[in-house]
Design brief:
This protein is α+β, with helices and mostly antiparallel strands. The protein has two domains: about 120 residues, no CATH class; about 150 residues, no CATH class. The chain is built from eleven helices and ten strands. The strands form three sheets. The chain has a four-stranded antiparallel sheet with strand order 4-5-6-7. A three-stranded antiparallel sheet has the order 1-2-3. α5 packs antiparallel against α6. The radius of gyration is 26 Å and the shape is elongated.
Length: about 300
């Protein structure tokens, strides 16, 4: 499990961050401790609604952490002094007191800075790759699916292959691997852990996104989610010589979209244009037919 210490820059502060298997956290030691504990609680759900409360200028309280407006007649000189020592500037009038119910220390923090720190930490956590164990588990699942797909020779094995694919794609999406843009750090982590199958999905997701936004697809009158399997890119469906890859793909996505397909999990069409082509499709998510491969039929 990673325990590397990094830095987060937000609101004019440079705060230490510890990357863990549960995601990045601000280190709670030192004068920024109350701020770190409140920000950590906000991004883990222990202090829900903090950002909305800051936007509205109202208090936010959780079971252990809080961010509250100081009372006009209250003396919080020590908390303001603590902020000046931490940041080198006065907190001003638009200020929150942050702290916990289990420690006496509080800190006066400008509202804009508190919001910037929480937002930056939330973004860092959203961009963080999964812990190593999760990456290795996904890599093994992806490799096993490829083997199963090649070897499936019975109806039971074929059904298992389709089920495993749906589960893997759902897991990849949940981990952020298929996001657009892909979370920062994924490629570095997967290269370091030697996960070639996952890198293949990463590249395929990027290629699918580029195609979905391409001029060639728009020119074909196609819109909405592209009805193309990641395996079109991952397994390199052939492109006819001299053809633009996006124009070629849009041509066959249009054919798929305009065709009446059977109810099964996969199938193919035979389409004649400048020659006969076998247009293979599959329901990767169990519902929507997507284009898998186009090539001349075997001789």
């Amino acid at each position: 499990m990673a325990t590397n210490v990094d830095q987060l820059v937000a609101g004019g502060l440079v705060l230490p961050v510890k990357d863990t298997g549960q995601g990045p956290f601000l280190l709670a030691d030192g004068p920024a401790g109350p701020l770190a504990r409140v920000a950590n609680a906000a991004v883990t759900g222990e202090l829900p609604g903090l950002v909305a409360a800051l936007d509205d200028g109202v208090n936010a309280r959780g079971p252990g952490e809080f961010a509250i407006r100081p009372q006009p007649d209250a003396d919080f000189t020590a908390e303001r002094s603590a902020w000046r020592a931490l940041s080198g500037s006065d907190p001003g009038d638009d200020t929150y007191l942050v702290g916990t119910t289990y420690e006496p220390e509080m800190l006066a923090v400008p509202r804009a800075v508190l919001r910037a720190v929480v937002s930056a930490l939330a973004a860092r956590r959203a961009a963080a790759p999964p812990e190593q164990a999760t990456a290795r588990e996904l890599e093994l699942s992806a490799q096993e699916l490829d083997v199963l797909t090649l070897k499936a020779a019975t109806p039971q094995a074929v059904a298992q292959q389709h089920l495993r694919r749906r589960m893997l794609l759902a897991d990849l999406a949940a981990a952020g691997l298929l996001a657009e843009p892909v979370p920062v750090g994924w490629r570095t982590t997967l290269s370091r852990l030697n996960c070639p199958a996952l890198i293949g999905y990463l590249d395929a997701a990027a290629a699918l996104s580029a195609y979905a936004k391409s001029d060639a697809r728009r020119a074909s009158g196609l819109s909405g989610p592209a009805r193309v399997s990641l395996d079109w890119f991952r397994l390199a469906s052939p492109v006819a010589p001299g053809q633009d890859p996006h124009e070629w793909l849009a041509r066959w996505e249009r054919v798929l979209t305009d065709s009446a397909l059977g109810p099964g999990p996969d199938g193919f069409l035979l389409e004649r244009t400048d020659g006969w082509y076998r247009v293979e499709w599959r329901r990767d998510d169990g519902e929507t037919p997507v284009l898998l491969r186009v090539a001349p039929p075997p001789a």
